[in-house]
Amino acid sequence: MKTEQTDLLTAGNIAKALSISDAKVKKAITELGIKPTAKKGICNLYSKEVVAKVKATIK
Q: Which residues pair with 44 in a beta bridge?
């Protein structure tokens, strides 16, 4: 039986958490070369550690 991780975030969720635009988050993820932890359909899902990395890049 496969267990699904629920602590993963989309780029949109990360943007909401940091109060910035989705585009800025996606650009930071691309610049940092971060790969998604998982995919669900067409959505890329990232771990919570990515939030700190993106936040540091945005400053």
A: 39
